[in-house]
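Collaborator request, handled under Task 6.
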Amino acid sequence: MRAAIQSRGFLHEHPMTDTLESHSQESLETHLAQVQALLARMHLVEDLVHRQEGPRQDLVEDLVHKQNLAELRRKLDALHPADVAYILEALPLDERSLVWDLVKAERDGDILVEVSDSVRESLIQTMDKAELLAAAESLDTDEIADIAADLPLDVIQELLTSLDAQKRAHLQSALAYPEDTVGALMDFEMVTIRADVSLEVTLRYLRRLGELPDQLDKLFVVDRNDALIGVLPLKRLLTSDPEASVAAVMVEDFVKFHPEDEAHEAAQAFERYDLVMAPVVNTQDHLIGRLTIDAVVDYIRESADADMLSMAGLKEEEDLFATVWRAAKNRWMWLAINLCTAFVASRVIGAFEGSIEKLAALAALMPIIAGIGGNSGNQTNTLIIRGLALGLITQAHARRLVVKEIGVAALNGLTWGAVVGVFAWLLYDNPALGGVMALAMLLNLIVAALAGIFIPMALAKMKRDPAIGSSILLTFTTDSMGFFIFLGLATLLLL
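Structure tokens returned to the collaborator:
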């Protein structure tokens, strides 16, 4: 009977998890404030001791330093790895290095998994090869895969030779899949059973295991060839007749993924079907891993952070306390693009210098047209990017969406065009100028709507992330066209 039930993967243990101080009601901000206070007090006390001259000055300073470090180490030891990671990200480089040196070596791996990519890179630079190997060997294969991109190549190669055959195969499998695929997110902590055993036998086996993988809400039912044929939810296992067979109560209609599936589609499925865990199978339906809700949540958070940075023109995640040179290089690309687009917009204005000289009010009013157009376009742009990310925009209703957004832009253009038109009329006592303002506002809002739709859709068509650079391209379009429309209409109708 034991041959009919198999356990897959590795159960990674965090012995401190159940006793950590961070499981209390204290907030992360409180922990950070306490560590910062300890660091400030340490620097203050050591500075005062250093200024006081006396016998055995070096010995006194050394004792005071060790006492301060011991108190800070006790505080860090009481925190969960995720809380320590949060603190490391919030500290300047010199204090971060000091705190990192105080972390127990056996916790290095867990903390490296939790910190952001940019901070992880700074921590790894302070570690030697032996420390990196020890930290990586303490992790599960999926966690090693998460930090592998930041590890030196020689560390990865030596790590592969030091792992046992099963763990090495799992790591190579995880590293083989592209980022943003299910294969890159899956882990191998699985419990599988056969369909012909009873629920009572299954329960006895689970009790013998002692510890189960995290986020386990179902067992995977496989045949003798390891092909997945069903899942057994734990609630059915616990509430059904113990004498019943697994085959009688298992679920045969379930959500499963392939390692090549896109991670964002899997994340949508987890949200849609309220999943906690789902199997990952190959083309022959052989079970090769599982995808869990914690991996999906981490992916969603990282994707949201990346999109936010991309929309701001940052090439990659930036360490909050990175050096000036590194931070500047990260921001150069889109600043250069923005500078080019600004030159184009300035030449549009330059083409109408004569008109502006004849009617100075044009220079004061044209930023209004461009600014409102940019805001309106960003609203449409954000809506379209969200629709693309959720897979809600298809060819079948794309035309209806365009018509709807043009209608919204026209209504807003008529309404707010009338407002700014009356404003310009009263301000400059020129009804014709007010009419030009109203017409320019209407036309630029329509242009902004079209740009907000087609810029992200064009980027998606080119297999590029619609969030990257779309706001800069949109601003360029609404500014240039806003200036051109307003100054062009003024030149034709007023001068």
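The cover message to the collaborator said: "DSSP finds 22 helices and six strands in the chain. The CA atoms of residues 217 and 234 lie 6 Å apart. Please let us know whether this matches your experimental observations."
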